[in-house]
Protein: Acyl-CoA thioesterase
Organism: Candidatus Macondimonas diazotrophica
Amino acid sequence: MAEMTDYAAVFVHRFPMAVRWGDMDAYGHVNNVNFLRYFESGRVAYAQEAYDHPVGANGENVILADTQCSFKRQLHYPGDITILSRTSRVGRTSMTMEQIIVQGDGALVATSRSVMVWFDFRSQRPVPVPDSLKSRLRRYEAALPEGL
């Protein structure tokens, strides 16, 4: 994953969100499952902007195959966060996405790495990432994804 001190230059896509009261748990901080929801919201917004392809289960589209999250600090209500997302690698049928969550003051809250698979919903099988999507990613990303 990119050095966190360099994230402003590496991550083009930014998705702002407000921390909600209901996101907190009995410990008084945002519950861990909500971080996965935050990353999900960032992934969907990223796909709509970077891929210029609506997310949906028709034809070919991207699906989540694997994800991980590393917690760097607690998050509390009230607060504003930004989810930053980028494609760091493109393979034959999959893409690796890196994401981070930062607070309004720029403090790093969490990191994530996910594997997205380009999927044909008719055949229920992975298919090659389209050349048109690869071209879009070359133009969109500040740092060229590995494999392009």
